[in-house]
Design goal:
The complex is a heterodimer of chains A (about 375) and B (about 70). In chain A, the strands form 2 sheets. In chain A, strands 1-2 form a two-stranded antiparallel sheet. By secondary structure, chain A is an all-alpha fold. In chain A, helix 5 runs antiparallel to helix 15. Chain A is built from 15 helices and 4 strands. Chain A has one domain. In chain A, strand 3 and strand 4 form a beta hairpin. Chain B is α+β, with helices and mostly antiparallel strands and about 70 residues long. Chain B has a single domain, classed as 2-Layer Sandwich (Translation Initiation Factor IF3). Chain B contains 2 helices and 4 strands; from the N terminus they run βαβαββ. In chain B, strands 1-2-4-3 form a 4-stranded mixed β-sheet, with helices on one face. In chain B, helix 1 links the parallel strand 1 and strand 2. Chain B is globular, with a radius of gyration of 11 Å. The model of chain B has no long low-confidence stretch (mean pLDDT about 90). Classes of the chains: A mainly alpha (about 375), B alpha+beta (about 70). At the A-B interface, strand 2 and helix 10 of A face helix 1 and helix 2 of B.
């Protein structure tokens, strides 16, 4: 067991996990998930928000089992390796707000960092602007970190605190089993299901869940994080996490070539728009929010699975943020940005700056 | 020269930032760093090794005590 535990902390461990995601994301597309969206944490949490009726955008409603699997895979790994540690209390309201704005920024671009990499690997040139924005946002975040920004210490707490998000996810899975999708119907019991659009495209429940569990398990072990990949390189010139993210892109690119899913260009890319400035701007906001919160959306799910109650609040912030993004017309569509997307990005950036400048707590 | 850094309860990348700033301050000697997650233990160890410090990990009840040494 200890050799295994050690392996995932090595460079080959993180490369292996990045490569595995690079294999399964394109395969999930082949098995039914939306194009260039084999696994997108922001998009899938947005779909969950839609399945719950927190927004009523008819095209993006589906209870994505991958996300449930991520949390439980991480939980299982954390228990198996005696790392489950219930903790909370490091500025939860700030994490909620950061989660909400991270989601809004990601939905202006149309993707989380994982999907940014998957879009690149699928040939979507617009993702270059998203990636540059992500790097820019994280770079600003590192300036705050160097300036002493931090959200304070978390406290060890009751085990059940760390179990709440996993239990919520379990509840979502149970709802899905009680109210399964009915062909041609947009609602089954309390859950909404898309009849067309990305929300209607999904791999079989069991396949999605098992791959989610596997990725969650391995990502907990290796601490895979796409925001950390860029942050650690900017801050410390450290390439450990970065090698995992690069492995993801390279392997996903090869998989897309093999599966015939590589279509280079800018126009008519799946679930993407060509407004470069806002592809960039949306991801500056998302990148900064992830950096201030200490993890990309995937990492927040894995942290929540190993007992981090503050990461769990970030996840809930993202799900609620998706509700705002679609109800208020902030989210983009293939036609371009939403009617209120620009002011939302500006307000989000101002909020992040307020957080970054004013939260410099002495930790000594 | 010796120093102690309490990074318990702090999330990424704070423990590494604090450890690096202490390493820079002392440049050699012994530094003790307290962390409470496996991830912080790995990250601080990795950063210290890169900076040429030797790392010894002692496991306590609720925390890890990382003893960094450089001559």
């Amino acid at each position: 067991m200890s050799t295994w535990a050690g392996f995932f902390a090595t460079r080959w461990g993180i490369i292996g996990v990045g490569a595995l995601i690079g294999i399964f994301a394109p395969l999930l597309q082949r098995w039914g998930n939306p194009p260039n969206m084999g696994i997108c944490v922001a998009c899938f949490e947005r779909d969950i928000s839609g399945a719950l009726g927190l927004h009523r955008a008819a095209l993006v409603q589906y209870m994505r089992p991958e996300m449930i699997g991520f949390v439980f895979g991480s939980l299982i790994a954390a228990y198996a390796f005696k790392e489950f540690r219930s903790r909370a209390g490091s500025a939860p309201i700030v994490r909620f707000v950061l989660g909400a704005f991270a989601m809004i920024g990601a939905l202006v671009f149309l993707g989380c960092p994982w999907r940014t990499l998957l879009r690149l690997a699928g040939g979507d040139g617009n993702a270059i602007f998203g990636l540059l924005g992500l790097i820019g946002g994280i770079w600003v975040g590192t300036l705050f970190l160097k300036g002493g920004y931090n959200l304070g210490r978390s406290q060890k707490t009751h085990a059940s605190v760390g179990w709440l998000l996993p239990l919520i996810m379990l509840g979502f899975l149970v709802l899905m089993l009680i109210f399964p999708q009915v062909q041609g119907q947009e609602k089954s019991g309390v859950l909404f299901y898309s009849l067309k659009g990305p929300g209607s495209m999904h791999a079989p429940l069991f396949v999605s869940l098992v791959i989610g569990l596997l990725v969650g398990f391995l990502a907990q072990r290796s601490r895979f994080c796409t925001m950390g990949a860029i942050r650690d390189f900017v801050l410390f010139r450290q390439t450990h996490l970065l090698s995992g993210a690069i492995a993801l892109v390279v392997v996903a690119f090869i998989m897309n070539l093999i599966l015939g899913q590589f279509n280079p260009g800018f126009e008519k890319q799946p679930i993407a728009h060509t407004m470069s400035l806002w592809n960039f701007g949306g991801m500056v906001l998302a990148g900064l929010a992830f950096a201030l919160a200490g993890g990309c959306p995937g990492r927040q799910l894995f942290l929540a699975g190993e007992g981090d109650g503050d990461a769990a609040v970030f996840v809930l912030g993202m799900i609620v943020g998706a509700g705002f993004a679609h109800n208020f017309g902030l989210a983009s569509s293939p036609d371009g940005i939403g009617p209120y997307g620009i002011p939302a990005v500006i307000i989000g950036l101002l909020t992040c700056l307020l957080i970054g400048f004013t939260m410099r707590k002495e930790v000594a | 020269m010796s120093g102690i850094v309490d990074a318990r309860g702090l999330s990424c990348p704070q423990p590494v930032l604090l450890a690096l700033s202490e390493m820079k301050k002392l440049s050699k000697g012994e530094i003790t760093i307290l962390v409470d997650t496996e991830t912080s233990k790995e990250n601080v160890s990795r950063a210290a090794t890169t900076q040429g410090w030797r790392v010894k990990v002692e496991k306590g009840q609720e925390e890890y005590r990382l003893v960094l040494k450089k001559d």
